[in-house]
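Okay, can you check this protein?
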Amino acid sequence: MPGAGSIEAPGPVRTPQPFGERLAAAVAARESQIVLGIDPDPARLWRTAGRADQARPALAAALAAADDAARAAAGGVTPSPGAGAAVRFDAAAAVLAHCLALIDAAGPACVAIKPQLACFERLGFAGWLVLERACAHARDAGLLVLADGKRGDVPVTAAVYAQAFAGLGADAFTANPLLGRDALDPLVQGARSAGAGVFALVRTSNPGAADVLDLRLEDGSPLWEHLARMVADLGAGELADVGAVTGATAPEHLVRMRELMPRTPFLLPGVGAQGGDVADLAPAFAPGRAAGLVTASRSIANAGETSGTEPGPAARAEAERLRQTAWSLA
């Protein structure tokens, strides 16, 4: 044992396992390529009997800890939170209860969750605490966390975004590459240093994607092909740590996308509520099962409304249906 006052030599610095390797291992272990989108709408939350009783104390404890830290920093005095704070807290607690129940119900058929950050940010400070708690719950259940914020900014700010996602503990996050390579590089490097991944928008699932992403460049190719080449160049690893958001609503592009991005994992939104069909996505899985991640949000969360049954079992059944269909294509 070193003597008093002695300094031990630092141990070896551990390099985080690359995201592509972790993704491939998770898909194989859970036998799923389904990503559970979590887009909570306060007007369409599940009736979660008992869950609210768990959610409120968890959220209250997080708020109390933050309040204690704020009071200590301010010498014991903090301003009143205002009349709207109680209403916002109740909404946040209800959203957390919904998220926990949804993860417990559908999570066993999934490999990851994809929280839409705006759905939490609109709840203010409490919403970010809800997001952190939901992500922690998902990780405890063995799920990856893909934070969906579609961030994109000048290089200095892009590096800060990478730090923010690392603080959240996200395994990967979405990014907008339209500011150019110099703005995407800091996001990728920041994520890579933490063993996380980035999914850059290439050809999105909304109809308006054609307004910009299908525009023809001077060589006659669409803009999304240029973005695909950039994503392929940025990625590292047998299964790359930089992925592409490639909407399931335009499956006719998948063969060309695979030619341009042979090692890139595809995040495939648009199944279900937006009209995409898992059965059309086979080219995405050509390099292997982990190369295609099928994300579904409303079609899972609102499955009970569609079938007229309880939301939890309905969500699990829909997630399992999607899992079986996607798994059979690979």
Observations:
- Residues 1-8 have pLDDT under 50 and may be disordered.
- Residues 17 and 195 are 6 Å apart (CA to CA).
- Residues 51-73 form the longest helix (23 residues).
